[in-house]
Amino acid sequence: MAMEKQAVITETHHRQVTAIGFHPVRREILAGFEDGVIKTFEAEGSKLVHTSWEHQGWITAFLYWTEGKVMFSSSNDGYIVAWASGGGVFDKIRVGSPVYCMALHVRRRQMVCGFNQAIRVFSLDEGGAVQPSAVADKDGSHLIHIKSGSTSTEHTDIVRCIVCHESRVYSAGYDSKLIIYDSSSYPGHRGLSPVFINHKAHEAGISTLVLVKDTENNTWLITGSFDKVVKIWSQDGKLTHRLDGFISTVTDICYVPKNKTLWVAGGSPIASLFDPKSGENVSDFIGTFQESEANEKYHIQLLKYFPELHQVVASTSRRHLIVWKYNPSACITALKCKHAVECLTYTKKVPILIFSGGNDGEVHKWERLQSNHFMYSKEVFPMSEAYSKLAQIKNIKRQAAAKQTLRAIGRPTQNTQHDRTLNQNNVVDKHKSALLQALFVEYLDLLLIASEDGNIYCWGFDDAAVDALKGMKPVGFEHLVKKYAILLNDDSELLINRCDQEIQEKDSVTNRVAGFICKNVLTGHNNCITSMVLVGRDNGYHSTYLLSSGWDRRICIWDLEKASLHDTFRNTSPNNSNDEELACDGIVIDMAYCPKRNEFAYASSDKMVYIRKFSEVGSDMTLCNTLQGHDAEITQVRWNKVTDKWITGSEDGTIRIWSEDGMTCDQILATHGAVLALCIDLKNGSIVAGVQNTIKVYDSQTFKLMQTNIGHSDSVRSIIHIPDRNQYISASWDKTIRIWNAYKQSKKKRLQKLDEKRDENSRHTANNPNYSVDSMYTPC
């Protein structure tokens, strides 16, 4: 949901662009130049359509009058030209003085023009719009009634900007004044009455003025000046934000309501993007200018937003025109990292936290700020702490093994010199291994990070800090609650019983501000760990188990509540001639769990997916089925709990949808590229696939391609869905994390799918009372 570059018009004119406009009927972009030339270009194709030479001086402004279907152009040659819908000159009005800006007062059918030290208000004649120019010259009538206009002379220099809104007219000029006029239409009053004058709104002349009104009915005035400052004012002229740091004069400002951003041209080759509500610079979090524009040397001068086509058009110092267009499938936010990103996970509790890991071995925590939906705070977890924890665990194991050896040979276990030698040899490799998988366990508030060094690092909230925060109550707090209990409502949180209070405190956000520490390291694999799945207590077990596997082809069963290795998979089949701990012939690439059938599937490099029953005992994980059909390495496997299907993706450029028991392949989707990441939409069951550097969304019923998200410049490695925000989050090797709007099914499709699910629920209730249609909205 961002503005993306659509076109660059390089061959415009040999003189500088001084004004930009848009003809909504003809759907053309107008560019006015220093020598009075006006050129029109196709808004979609950027092709030159027409060139005119009606003016003799700088083109200063364009204005379209909807009721009269007329386009006006003004110049410092003292003329206003009215252009007909066909493109020819309809009327040419001589005003006698250079016109520097124009605005329409729709409520009173007036044109307000800015001159040197004056503002003039002219009535518009809609009837005159049907008269040809020759008749207008003959009887003296024009579209604009020049002779009956009123003048206001509060300004002392050129009036460069005028904006009309409801009954107010706002003006600013090179005299640094910001003036608010009232244009009430009481009898006998035709002009403007100043109601507010700021004589020193800026330290230098004001070059641009826009009025912004967002979807929440917030209204602001934004001014830019030669003093390199942008100021945001309330509707009645009170200063709310000051934006500085621009390298040159602020030449133009425009507001894009689609993503609620303010674009500012201030001497840079890229526009600075701001949130007008908070006044914060959000440029680093929006992907519009994160590519090649930063390397260009020609700065942006003029900016105009055209709501008819959701386009922003800018002129540059090189006389180019650049066109950006709103793309609803573009990313909302782009978070920049220093290294390629491999894995993502998130917490479902409020505040929602996003965790990422990459090939630099660092774990990043991202949290969206409250001020706007673009900006995210970033925290980097110190991996030195994790490696220190790993060193402690290795040291304890070595000491235990050494003591056991000494006991076996009959020597005393109190060998201080031997222990000192072990500590000296315990050197942790400072090379940071890539982090390949991430998983957050909500029940335990535990972040699991699988690394290529064969370890699983367990990060959790600092328990000591949590306890300290929970204990921070004022002295005599409980006494005050008891004393003034009569003043509290019956449902007051202060009057809940102690048991409920303890539960509430446990689930509160107190621990979310306590910080993460590395609590443990699970060591058991001897090579890269590529997959992890969780089997929790809600699946009928007495503890929380984690399955992990990777390049060593072993499947480990971890008891997370005890933080220990519970068991490993063992193939007890009589036909097995290999090591009984090997789960397949190739390395394990991905893994998924099906809670409905209590089965887990893992994809292997041998082009097969194995489906086994889950058991706490490694030797009881019986093989249920295998999924065969892909022609290349299978990279992803997922269980779609909305449709009760297995989903697999492969480097052969296909996605296969399998039946619940894995016996048949129901559908094959051609993705036209290797599938490197896979995600299931938790609301509608859509298949979200990372196909090389593109994200493609397929409907779970029709299997049609419904949405394509383009923005990454390298392979997409991980995708997650946050249903509470209706967003997809993707991580890529291009060193960015991008946030997209999720695919929304039509209401008719959603109701149809819900009815089908209810019918299926009624069929399963007799055999499985725990199965419910409501579970389709809860992620695995």
Overall description:
The protein is mainly beta and 780 residues long. Among the domains are: 14-251, YVTN repeat-like/Quinoprotein amine dehydrogenase (Methylamine Dehydrogenase, Chain H, 7 Propeller), CATH 2.130.10; 747-780, no CATH class. The chain is 11% helix and 43% strand. A hairpin with a 3-residue loop joins strand 7 (70-75) and strand 8. The relative contact order is 0.06. Residues 129-139, 415-430, 497-508 and 769-780 have low confidence and may be disordered.
Quick take:
This protein is mostly beta strands. It is built from 7 helices and 56 strands.
Biggest sheet, spatial arrangement of strands: 1-28-27-26
CATH superfamily grouping of the domain at 14-251: YVTN repeat-like/Quinoprotein amine dehydrogenase
Report low-confidence residues grouped into runs of 5 or more.
129-139, 415-430, 497-508, 769-780
Radius of gyration: 34 Å
Structural class: mainly beta
Global outline: elongated
CATH A-level architecture of the domain at 14-251: 7 Propeller
Oligomer: single chain
How many strands in all? 56
CATH topology of the domain at 14-251: Methylamine Dehydrogenase, Chain H
What portion of the residues fall into strands of 2 or more residues? 35-45%
- Helix tally? 7
Helix content: 10-25%
Distance between the termini: 28 Å
Question: Topology, please?
Answer:
Elements: E1 2-9, E2 17-23, E3 28-33, E4 38-42, E5 48-52, E6 59-65, E7 70-75, E8 79-83, E9 89-94, E10 101-105, E11 110-115, E12 118-124, H1 133-139, E13 144-152, E14 159-165, E15 168-173, E16 178-182, E17 193-198, E18 206-213, E19 219-225, E20 230-233, E21 239-243, E22 252-256, E23 261-265, E24 272-275, E25 280-281, E26 300-306, E27 311-316, E28 321-327, E29 333-336, E30 341-346, E31 353-358, E32 363-368, E33 376-381, H2 383-409, H3 416-425, E34 435-441, E35 446-451, E36 455-461, H4 463-470, H5 477-483, H6 498-507, E37 516-523, E38 529-535, E39 545-550, E40 556-559, E41 564-568, E42 588-594, E43 599-604, E44 608-613, E45 623-628, E46 634-640, E47 645-650, E48 654-658, E49 665-670, E50 675-680, E51 687-691, E52 694-698, E53 705-710, E54 716-722, E55 727-732, E56 736-741, H7 747-765
Antiparallel strand pairs: 1-28, 2-3, 3-4, 4-5, 6-7, 7-8, 8-9, 10-11, 11-12, 12-13, 14-15, 15-16, 16-17, 18-19, 19-20, 20-21, 22-23, 23-24, 24-25, 26-27, 27-28, 29-56, 30-31, 31-32, 32-33, 34-35, 35-36, 36-37, 38-39, 39-40, 40-41, 42-43, 43-44, 44-45, 46-47, 47-48, 48-49, 50-51, 51-52, 52-53, ...
